[in-house]
Amino acid sequence: MKLSLTLSLLFLFTATSFAQRKVQLVILFDTSNSMDGLLNQAKSRIWAIVNEASTLTYQGAPVTLEIAMYDYGNSTIPATQNYIRKQLDFSTDLDLVSEKLFGLRTSGGDEFCPAVIVSSLKELNWSNSPQDLKLIYIAGNESFKQGPISTSTACVLAAEKHVLVSTIFCGDRLQGVNLGWKEGADCAKGDFFNINSDAAIKQIETPFDDQIIEQNRLLNNTYIGYGSVAVESKSKQLSQDENAWGISKSVETERYLVKSKSSYKNDKWDIVDANKADSTKLRQLSDDELPAEMKGMSVEQRQTFVKQKTEERSAIQKEMARLETERSKYIEAEKAKTTQAKPDDFGTAVTTSMRNNAKTLGFD
Hints:
364 residues, alpha/beta, Rossmann fold, 2 domains
């Protein structure tokens, strides 16, 4: 009996110790009329933010990245909803995150900051583990204290769920303090930033960008869709490539580097990722669910085909990792050429805060 109890406790301890840590990141966007600049900065920085999150590990092990998104202060949202709209539940689908962000549009309305924070805290499936990194970032430019819910109510709920709430005021720092944005961050144990949301993001192009772009073309060829959502999902992948390309070469490159990491996974439609997630998947799929190039294959032929694609993708990802290292060195050298302090933008605010809070929780 004692041996059985000891083994059970040991198994529970081991399972808890090695459970994959989560990073849960929620962004609350003010989409009232004056916030086009904020959205433009977010589109320019989203892949830099995801790339930063993708480098986090816990005791050397990769983490699971989940992102959710709300917009608020938009007149197209009913007043009965406090002008709050959930755009995205927690998701590991990074193409869907991009699709939702690029789909945001501004329109005047009332901005109720504590209300949207409370909505995200109540509606989303937050982790129960205090060891997971749980972050909310809210950005806007009006008084933080508007609406039917108080700042203190939002902070109490955030503390109960071990969620850190950081605020990003789009305007002068002192004005942000006077309008309650620093108070909102302080009481929720988060960080306070102010940014010029209308400032254009300065991008640094490198000699390695074109090589990374070519590697992405090869990488896309290793995504083999299966099932009913294959065509739609592959189209979404390519559409988000185009959205990044439409911003700048630097943003395009940053997206492709994210696609080379383990945080970018598409097991719901890509046969390679599906096989990684569940090695029995290839036996389960009917011939009708298979992609055209795999129809009529035996189980052994399926396994051989997917193994080849897996190895091909791994080699591409390895080369992209090498190019990323060289690219990072180049960018750091370019940044070192100027000693002038650069003001925060949406992306640097989020990445700086995320990295510091991750270290506090023991993430690498």
